[in-house]
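Q: Convert this sequence to structure tokens.
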Amino acid sequence: MQFRTGLSVKPKEIQRNGLVIFTDGTNDVTPNQADCEAYGYTYNEETQTCQAFHYSPTTEEGVRNTTNVIRGQNNFTEKGTRNTFILGQNNTTKGDNKDSIIVGDNNEIALGVNNATVLGSYGVAQRDGEIVFGGGGFNGAGKGYGQSSIISLSGTTTNATPTKLKVSNSSSTEVIARASTSSFQGFEAKLIGVRTGGTAGGSVDDRVFINVAGLAHERAVDQTKTTLGSHGTVTGWTGDVIFTAPNDMFFAVTGAANMNISWSCTLHLYEMKV
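A:
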């Protein structure tokens, strides 16, 4: 699960008793009520803890992974995993996952991530709808140190203000990755924009197809943009990888004033940690 915009903590795991453990990316932390509720969990004021569910013996029985298909050795699905297929060994879903697929070994789907697919070995799915190709253990470094993935993004604009696209048709998730001193992201985005309305000059169905490619590290982005095709009035239409505090990485599109434009982006992300 990615950090929510404006927050410096996120859920790490759900314990068997329903308590949600948070992390700042390095250390376990105790969430406050706002942190807890921002991720859709319930804050218990009496115990000052964050809960995914109220624990009881019947709850334990009710949330067993009866809808999953698991084939292979040492595969583990944490609580709340459902409708998920795992083929291989030493794979893990971190909980609160649904409708996902893992094929390979030593792969992981992060807490709260749905509709994800992980193939290969030592890959980590961190975003809804993501397709991950694990690149192996990266000389024993571990999961997620060398991998590539495909992510779908979409959104709309009505003006010339940069607008962050949402991940996998989410109603709220915009964060693609999080910068750190050890993380590098190469990317290539195929972006299509189509006008659907508005009062500015030009016509409905004006359109553009843009390729945006580059390298991101520590909130610094080196990128190039190439228009692969266009039709009609598309002046100023573009897309960019951007960073905002606290080190969140987004893909933003810019349209034009008084133009209603729908955007769809297929983002290829190549990640490495050192």
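The chain has two helices and 24 strands.
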